[in-house]
């Protein structure tokens, strides 16, 4: 019985890794589409979002099966409960990557008023957070999970830098205002992605210790 349960837990880990990989792709593709003003690439993010939604349903189904058909001990119960919480944040990350792609399509035919610099850095930072939070769950690595939580401060600093840059652009020329607001919204979505990745890491801490940081 326990061997079967362990096999299903291993399957759960693999499904979370697959969902994480889809999320990483959606974030990376959304920022590449933004940088290149590539409508076709931005539209592909919507297709990935559908895959992310399906993966969330598959993981939720497996978690419920584990809870109903097995008799998990306290540690296993925390792990399954954490996975259910994590996939909610992961699905929202997919939604926000799609939102970024949608704004990218709106901006595609207008030259940027400023070279994109810190927004791609935000994207890279959030991909790192997502990857490492899921790695922490699979490896039951408490120190890595806490490092992800701390790293969210870096994303917040980049967001503040983007805001300051865009405010300066508007001050220099009010005609930049509309595009600056769109870019600020994109930066805000990346900031939220960082928050969701931080949430995932906090659920990892819970799955290991029974307490949320």
Give keywords.
single chain, 213 residues, Methane Monooxygenase Hydroxylase, Chain G, domain 1
Please count the helical segments: 6
CATH superfamily, please? Phosphate transport system protein phou homolog 2, domain 2
Kindly report the average pLDDT value.
93
What's the oligomerization state? single chain
Overall CATH architecture: Up-down Bundle
- Indicate the percent of residues in helices: over 70%
Tell me the strand percentage band: under 5%
CATH class: Mainly Alpha
Total number of strands: 0
Alpha-beta content class: mainly alpha
The CA-CA distance between the termini, in Å, is 33 Å
Number of spatially distinct domains = 1
Poorly predicted segments: none
Q: The CATH topology is what? A: Methane Monooxygenase Hydroxylase, Chain G, domain 1
H-E string? HHHHHH
Morphology: elongated
Description:
This protein is mostly helical and 213 residues long. It contains six helices and no strands. The chain has helices at residues 2-36, 39-69, 74-107, 118-139, 142-172, 177-209. α1 (2-36) packs parallel to α3 (74-107) and α3 (74-107) packs antiparallel against α6. The radius of gyration is 19 Å and the shape is elongated. The two termini are 33 Å apart.
């Amino acid at each position: 019985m326990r061997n079967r349960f362990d096999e299903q837990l291993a399957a759960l880990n693999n499904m979370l890794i697959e969902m994480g990989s889809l999320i990483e792709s959606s974030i990376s593709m959304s920022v590449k589409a933004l940088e290149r003003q590539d409508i076709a690439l931005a539209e592909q993010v919507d297709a990935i979002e559908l895959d992310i939604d399906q993966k969330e349903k598959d993981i939720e189904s497996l978690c419920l099966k584990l809870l109903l058909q097995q008799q998990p001990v306290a540690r296993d119960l925390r792990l399954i409960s954490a996975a259910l919480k994590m996939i909610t944040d992961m699905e929202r990350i997919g939604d926000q990557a799609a939102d970024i792609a949608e704004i990218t399509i709106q901006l595609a035919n207008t030259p940027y008023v400023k070279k994109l610099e810190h927004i791609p850095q935000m994207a890279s930072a959030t991909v790192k957070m997502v990857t490492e939070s899921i790695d922490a769950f699979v490896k039951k690595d408490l120190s890595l999970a806490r490092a992800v939580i701390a790293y969210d401060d870096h994303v917040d600093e980049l967001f503040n830098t983007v805001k300051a840059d865009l405010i300066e652009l508007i001050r220099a020329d009010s005609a930049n205002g509309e595009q600056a607001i769109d870019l600020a919204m994109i930066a805000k979505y990346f900031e939220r992605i960082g928050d969701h990745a931080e949430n995932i890491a906090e659920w990892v801490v819970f799955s290991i210790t029974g307490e949320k940081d």
